Amino acid sequence: MLSRTASCLYWLGRYVERAEFTARLVEATLRLDALSTRPAGDAAWLSAMKVLDADIAFAATGQALTPRNVTRFLTVSVGHPGSVLFCLNAARDNAKAVRTALSREAWSAINRAWLLFHGKTSPGDTEQVLNLVAQAEAETRGFEGAIGRMLRNPSSRFIRLGAAIERADNTARLLDVKYHILLPEGEAVGGAVDRDQWTTILQTVSAVNAYRWLYREGLKPWLVTELLILRRELPRSLAACGEEVVQHLAGIGKETGNQGEADRLARDRHAEFGSARIEQIIATGLHEYLEDYLEANAALDAAIARQFRFY
Amino acid sequence: MGRPFDEIRGFSEGAGARPEFAALGQWLDETPAAELQRRQEAAEATFRQLGITFAVYGDEAAAERIIPFDIVPRIFTASEWSSLSAGLVQRVEAINAFLTDIYGPRKILADGIIPEDLILRNPQFRPEIVGSRPPHDVWSHICGIDLVRTGPDDFWVLEDNARTPSGVSYMLENREAMIRLCPELFQMYQVEPVDSYTDLLHETMQSVAPRGCGSDPVCVILTPGHYNSAYYEHSFLADTIGIELVEAADLEVDDDKVWMRTITGRVQVHVIYRRIDDDFLDPLIFRPDSLLGVPGLISAYRAGNVTIVNAPGTGIADDKAVYSYMPEIVRYYSGGDPLLPNVETYRCREPEMLSYVLDNLEKLVVKLVDGSGGYGMLVGPMASKTQIEDFRAALKAEPHRYIAQPTLALSTVPTLTEKGIAPRHVDFRPFVLSQPGRVKIVPGGLTRVALKEGSLVVNSSQGGGTKDSFILANNGGRS
Amino acid sequence: MRLTIDHRTRYQFSEPQARVVQLLRMTPLDFGGQTVIDWRIDVDCDARLREGRDGYGNITTMLYIDGPVNAVSIMVRGDVLTDDLGGRVKGTLEPLPPLFFMRSTPLTEASVAISDLVPPTPTGLDQAMALNLAVKAAVSVEPGRTPKTRTAAEVLAEGQGSVRDCTHVLLAAARSAGYPARLVSGHCLDGPNARSHKSAHCWAELFIAGEGWIAFDPSTGRLPGDTYVRVAVGLDAGDSTPLSGTRRGGGIEELDVEVRIAMSQSQE
């Protein structure tokens, strides 16, 4: 496989995942704020932007922090390199450059998702946004399905590798920001607002049902944290993403007969999850843990680029 | 101009279809226009979804459009096709022989068949290629010959495309759409399949690989990238054949051999079907200012270590000024009369012809020698006074840059329009593949149709559309 | 005369380069006026060299260098025996007929002023010699390399330029007068660049009916003789350039050229 193709596929996977995550976060925040009987207010939108690393960029636009402005910024802004529109543009560009490596079904899903946002300047009212976001999620899920049905060849592996790296990054950011910033001062831990916000996290990673299945008790922050970090049953947990990365790298290595630095880093990181306990992680500092994790994830991304000669 | 020939209904207005196309005529009469419209829209929706788009120059807003598709097929009978293909084979063989000669001994110039300066001073004659021979002496491996028709047996070559002709993906995708949307037509007629084209293309690439590279040469398609207007076609062909679609940055030349960069290291490449112009092949040779291209590619080519499809330098064979000598060229190399005639062409570089052209501008089609895509073209009978005067001035200033041709009464084919089925002018581009010692043609081609009433310009950039082209396995009806 | 040439080119890069590919037209061929006794190209790093021919019949050498590389030195050395044929160019390989060299290029497009340099005398050797002198008089030559690319018309309007600029003016004027003309790159023992050691030399060849190809040096007004070594030809300096290259790795490059030409000690 051409190095450029591998690089495009990997970034295709990352951008689709990023688009979907952003869409989900917008949806969950809307539900938390606009549709809730207890509007969460500016704090919810600010924290959503912090998760996406978009707070500074938004402030630079000089717009007022209103749900409508933030929603537009995160979904259809052409200038913001993190909006759903931007991610879908980038995903489609990468997909177009590697059309031969994709199934028609996978390409069509990307193209349809892109057409949803292409040329849009305003996402509309809350209901229209929810509708748009739901359609985008449906198309990206369709894309994941199409990738799942593609041959288990290096093409689909690189896409899924990119998606897994991106997903791990998103989950870690979500957890980090929400855990530290979200709870307004004076609110009791375990209170109604707190519960709403933890529910938002679970919605963003589509884990509301998974939580109920696995824990069969009320929302406990440390359990949500455990679910998102250590439970392999949840596809968006750090442990599950780590496992996926190891698998895809091994799958590619099996085809090419080569293994390298990225394989070693991924395996080492994966092994650490085996013995980790949530009590211990929280005791030594969740924020520090997640920061270290994000740094290691970036190092793994760089190792992948080197190993497969992306540049 | 009399009434143009309609390929399905013949010359007479209101008459039924020609006998061999009676079934199609009946289908047209009986299928409601709304139903045809529905099918056409379904086809176009599929094309849009597949991303079969093209870019129009100077049209930023519509950066990506699909080429309109017309649901009514155009049909050739088996005997029409067999005489057409004989003419195409003869012409393409002559083009390849001409290129071998012109970049080698130049006998045709020594024998005075073509004026020497027409070749030697033509920018399309590439000194960088002089003295080289492509592996197996095949130059223009893929030729697209543009044909027009004016009567039942009157076909004319309008233009040769010996560089990197595009459009073959429309031939293939249009057929897929027709089979899906109008299966009944394939019950009515036994239509020759076109889907073997990609296999034949691969076979052609393998057949011209440099000697000594083994039985399984590595073939790739070289694209300028996904912003190119024909990118869909490039990726479609690579995908269907199962070979890599590379960009210049994926290739490097080392030790006069070409390599592609892969995730496991580099792999030697033997055959490159390039869809980029000569100018952008090798910045060390052609365009030092260009960042595109593969430095060293021409050295690898001259060393005989890689085959470039089509070979660099083939532009001299489809230059419009050279075109006017094609009958002489065909006669010179084939030893016989051309089976496919040229459209009569006035070379404005010759003073007598120029004065005729200036006197008859309103009757003629005037073209830039190095123009394409319908740009820089005057269609006299359709043009305004101002346009004619503009061209008159341009012709007087630089006569050598123009040729002129009579305006032909191009044939029409029934086409779905806003007002129902109506005749529209068409042309036809079959794709001719040259392998060592033999020429092969898939029974089919690209029919382009001028969708505007009365328009003679079929180029997609000027509002043209496409149709499927049926070649029948017999002379009509299903046997 | 026995001439020894020592032509060194050194590239230095601000960033390590992943790959460097160079095309050299630096190897002379034998013809009636010269015999190459010894010629070699050396590179100071691991490189693959491949010899070939271009469409003009020039010897080309491709140089392929793997990175990471911070600097490359190319040393071209050799000895050539020369004879004075009074400018006549005999026994060269001619893959292209003279008419081809009537083509003008963007750098050698004739202007009215350039055509006006052609003396109103009958076509032939005398007229060509007079034209050569007219160009010498019209363009004062400064040693060294061309600081920026100018067209022949611009050069003539400014009245000064490098050897290369001056040759372009002669090419443009000659073609406008109906002489096929080409640029020759090479070396000259006593040309304008000989003392600065910073650049090689170039001149023109005109095809004169009944005479054949004749060499003219508009920078000196002479017809090249045994102090000249003929290396490569082309339509202008662009396609006969001694050295062109590409590299992958970004940054900027610094180029240093040193050319020394000397009469050999062992003069026969």
Weakly predicted, low-confidence segments of chain C: none
For the biggest sheet of chain C, the summary is: 6 strands, antiparallel
Strand-pairing-aware structural class of chain C: mainly beta
The general outline of chain B is: globular
- Rg from Cα of chain B: 23 Å
> Spans of chain B of 5+ residues with little confidence (pLDDT < 50)?
56-62
Structure summary, number of beta strands of chain B: 20
Total of DSSP H or I helical runs spanning 4+ residues of chain B: 15
What's the domain count of chain C? 2
The counted number of beta strands of chain C is 12
**CATH architecture field of the largest domain in chain C:** Roll
The overall pLDDT average of chain B reads 89
Cα-atom Rg of chain C, whole angstroms?
18 Å
Total helical segments of chain C: 4
Strand order of the largest sheet of chain B: 1-20-19-16-15
Largest interface: B-C, 27 and 28 residues
Brief description of this entry?
The complex is a heterotrimer of chains A (about 300), B (about 475) and C (about 270). Chain B is of the alpha+beta class and about 475 residues long. Chain B has helices spanning about 20-30, 35-50, 80-100, 105-110, 115-120, 170-180, 185-190, 195-205, 230-240, 295-300, 315-320, 320-325, 325-335, 350-360, 385-395, and strands at about 70-75, 140-150, 155-160, 220, 245, 250-255, 255-260, 265-270, 270-275, 305-310, 345, 365-370, 375-380, 400-405, 410-415, 420-430, 430-435, 440, 445-450, 465-470.
Describe the structure.
The complex is a heterotrimer of chains A (311), B (479) and C (268). Chain A has 311 residues and is mainly alpha-helical. Chain A is 75% helix and 0% strand. Chain A is built from 15 helices and no strands. In chain A, helix 8 (154-182) runs antiparallel to helix 12 and helix 12 (238-256) packs antiparallel against helix 13. Chain B has helices at residues 22-30, 33-50, 78-102, 107-110, 116-120, 168-181, 183-188, 197-207, 231-241, 297-302, 315-318, 320-323, 326-334, 351-359, 385-397; strands at 69-76, 142-151, 154-161, 219-222, 244-246, 251-254, 257-262, 265-269, 271-274, 307-309, 346-347, 364-368, 377-379, 402-406, 412-417, 420-429, 431-435, 438-441, 446-450, 464-471. In chain B, strands 1-20-19-16-15 form a five-stranded mixed β-sheet. In chain B, strands 3-2-17-18 form a four-stranded antiparallel β-sheet. In chain B, strands 5-4-9-10 form a four-stranded parallel β-sheet, with helices on one face. In chain B, a hairpin with a 2-residue loop joins strand 17 and strand 18. Chain C has two domains: 2-80 and 243-263, Immunoglobulin-like (Sandwich); 84-234, C8orf32 fold. In chain C, the strands form three sheets. In chain C, strands 1, 2, 3, 4, 11 and 12 form a six-stranded antiparallel β-sheet that branches. The radius of gyration of chain C is 18 Å and the shape is globular. The mean pLDDT of chain C is 92. Chains in contact: A-B, B-C. The B-C interface holds B 106, 116-117, 120-121, 123, 126-132, 252-256, 283-285, 288, 295-296, 299, 302-303 and C 19, 21, 23, 48, 50, 52-57, 60, 62, 64, 66, 95-97, 99-100, 102-103, 235, 238-239, 244-246.
